[in-house]
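Hi support team,

I submitted a single chain yesterday and got back a structure, but I'm not sure I'm reading the token output correctly. Could someone confirm the output below corresponds to the sequence I sent? I've pasted both exactly as they appear in my results page.

Thanks,
R.
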Amino acid sequence: MYALLVIFVFSVAVLGHIRYSLLVCLLIAMVDAEVMGFIHFWGLRLNTVTAVQLIMAAGIITDMIVHIVHYFVAVQKDRRMGKVDRIVNAGSEIGPSVLFASLTTFIGVLP
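Hi R., thanks for writing in. Yes, this is the structure output for that exact sequence:
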């Protein structure tokens, strides 16, 4: 819970929008709940290894979400573009970079 508060404060500082920061926190909470659910579904116990994986998952998803939302907000200054166009633009412009960063992080933690 404290982690979401810290993420909220920093995302407000970075993004400058409370609504988008709440969206970031909601998405992070959803990913954490999903990962915790899969830990239970797969029969794993919460130990040091799974705790580190949860922390890494939260960090990676925060990085990905904030990059995409920050690009979406930065393009918002161009009032000629609608929301759908900004979403498509953010996905096409920064999406591949975020995807490759996530993939290299994933490959880096493989045994």
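A quick pointer for reading it: The chain has a mean pLDDT of 83. Let us know if anything else looks off.

Best,
Support desk
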